[in-house]
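Hi team,

Below is the intake form for Thiamine-monophosphate kinase from Nocardia bhagyanarayanae. Please confirm the fields before the structure is written into the shared record.

FORM ID: S-0412
PROTEIN: Thiamine-monophosphate kinase
ORGANISM: Nocardia bhagyanarayanae
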Amino acid sequence: MPSTGYRRADSSWHYLGKGPVISESAAPRTVRELGEFALIERINARRVQAPAVLLGPGDDAALVAAPDGRFVVTTDMLVEGRHFRRDWSSPREIGRKAIAQNAADVVAMGAAPTAFVVALGCPAETPVDVVDDLADGMWAEAARAGGSIAGGDLVRSPELVISVTAFGDLRGHAPITRAGARVDDTVAVAGRLGWSAAGLAALIAGADAEEFAEALAAHRVPQPPYEVVLGSSWRAGHSLTDVSDGLLADLGHIAEASGVGIDLDAAALCDPALDALARRLDADAAQWILAGGEDHAFAGTWPRGAELPEGWRAIGRVTAGSGVTVGGARHEGGNGWESFRGADSAPGPGPR
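The structure came back. Fields below:
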């Protein structure tokens, strides 16, 4: 994001100087009142960049180190009303979620997140405090993942739109892709499955916030277990993905890319606490686990008989054939999220 001491008002330019911009009457309340460049200056003030960001906001582009001559890059977008609702999540939570889902994709390649570039579209009447809180959430999650916000863009749009591009460092290692699974591999997962879907179901149902607090938190701010992948012990794994669209859908990508089948153990996936919440909503916890998505756990395959590192648990095995089965049978129900299929892939109302 460019950082400057000037703001455009209509066709003229006004020098604002450094520091916070205060009008003679009162502090600006909306993005329109503050102005684009003053807002950019404000949200970048006093931020500390990660070591890999050699030049952050303030120039035409950022400069990010690529120590081994390569970098991993991914991008993802969130649109208000489609992927989040501001009456369901705070701006800070939305900001953290936007970064987390991109950081998880980088980590799923075996890379350590280094930098993020954020493009934000918002209505002119958006309160400045909303953008402040969004930025705070983004910076907090970027730091948790090991990176920082290196730059971006700010534009006017009819609704809140967030596009994040994330970069990662392989640190001299080969990337971990979806294409390495082998027959007889152990399928394992790190992180919790189904809890984000449970939180979404609770929001749709208007369920008791205290009773569903854990699920609501999982939906609003996913907690990818970055450290269990970035530890050196992962390198024995054959394939890896993050669980964003749903376990069946994402393992299906591994199966297709590797030319294999995957069979899951239903008992290994069972979560008694999630079952209890599902009963309260007359829902199916297995569907949340298998097709809910947005947990941003990690799933991968390991050589048969290999000792799984701490934080991983076995949930199935790789087979000859194709597709993903549960206990040897195809799952009856949705497999996960696909953007342009709508309700066919994500039954029920609510943002995705």
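SUMMARY LINE: The chain has two domains: 6-169, 178-344.

Thanks, M.
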